[in-house]
Amino acid sequence: MLTGIHVAFIGGDARQLEVIKRCIQLDASVTLVGFDNLESNFTGATKRPLTCDVLKDVDALILPIVGTDDQGFVESIFCSKPLQLLDQHVESLPKHCVVYTGMAKTYLKNLLASKQIPLVELLDRDDVAIYNSIPTVEGALMMAIQNTDITIHGSQSIVLGLGRTGLSMARALHALGARVRVGARRQEHLARIYEMGLTPFPISELKQQVTNADFIFNTVPQLILTAEIIAQMPQSAFILDLASKPGGTDFRYAEKRGIKALLAPGLPGIVAPKTAGQILAQTLSRLIAEQRITRGEST
Ligand code: NAP
To answer: Which parts form a coiled-coil structure per UniProt (predicted)?
Structure first.
């Protein structure tokens, strides 16, 4: 339970609603900042404007997945007024407060570090990244189906990277009957791909591997599908780049060659906002409860 814990939310999207629901269910005291246009009224949560006073006794401050932009503006689909997290807001947080977000930009990192307020980036965590790979893969399959005229079953599918997303992607394609090859640079990853019954290849051989590809799913957050590699692909190949912006594909060259290549960021929030929110809610409620234990309080 989170009885006696004050959790404040600043901005967010549909995912945040699941987190708010969970915190209320666990008996936290909940303050919502930047939710003015939210229609469903959460009983047990108070809507407030962004002021220093609101933040002065907050134990956990929850920001949206993207945190803030480079000027401190926080996005909220539930509020039309701009929300800007400034120095004075962070200054007013108690020293024991922990700030949670998905991924923080330099502005937020510097702002919190200057006041010694701890920051937790949820998308950095293996557990969150692995759970998130489930809606990501479902979204990737949806896009592959929508953008091609062939089945995934029987296709020549290439996955680049065997990290948390690449592994789930490769496994789902295999289960659908695709002929799956996975490119990786670490020997243990190549061994794991083999163990999974898939075809491994070192990334250095990518140029030879793409000549008959139907689908290429990239999870490597580096420019890997260069013009030189794309030049070897059949024109019917479909590239779905899952890596964070700007992706790992030379999109300009792909377009020039007439190869369909799409960058697909933020799939969990797009295809399954409720599940994506529940993933965050589950992890956040545990972390906030642990935060209290670290401070020597019991539940
Ligand atoms: P991850 O676990 O770190 O996996 C990344 C993979 O890329 C690892 O296998 C890594 O190999 C490999 N890699 C990195 N640099 C490389 C290079 N220069 N050459 C060859 N391989 C390289 O990350 P993840 O959680 O799977 O996420 C992958 C990307 O997808 C990230 O950019 C993430 O932000 C993004 N993402 C997007 C969505 C979406 O909705 N589109 C959802 C979740 C994640 P090593 O282990 O050898 O370093």
So the answer is: none
Q: Assess if residue 1 is contained within a domain.
A: no
Q: How far is CA 28 from CA 86, 104, 282, 288, in A?
A: 25, 25, 14, 10
Identify which of 219, 242, 262, 279 to mutate to test ligand 1's pocket (most ligand atoms within 8 A of the CB): 219
Fill in the amino acid letter for 166.
Answer: G
- Provide residues with CB under 6 Å of ligand 1: 129, 132, 136, 161-166, 184-186, 203, 219-222, 242-244, 264-268
Are residues 294 and 235 located together in one domain of the fold? no
pLDDT digits (tens, 9 = 90+) for 149-176: 999 999 999 999 999 999 999 999 999 9
Residue 96 domain flag: yes
CB 179 within 8 A of CB 212: no
Q: Each residue of 61-90: pLDDT tens digit?
A: 999 998 999 999 999 989 988 999 999 999
> Structural domain tally of the chain?
2
Same domain as 279, residue 257: no
Task: Tell me what the pLDDT averaged over the chain comes to.
Answer: 94
Q: Domain limits at 258? A: 127-265
Reply yes or no on whether the pLDDT at 104 is more than 60. yes
Asked if residue 292 and residue 220 are part of one domain, the reply reads no
Packed helices 273-294 and 14-25: angle between N→C axes, nearest 10 degrees = 40
Ligand 1 centroid–CA 171 distance in Å is 16
Domain match, 30 and 116 both: yes
Q: Tokens for 121, please give them.
A: 């980036």
pLDDT band at 299 (very low <50, low <70, confident <90, very high): very low
pTM: 0.90
CA 288 – ligand 1 centroid, Å? 27
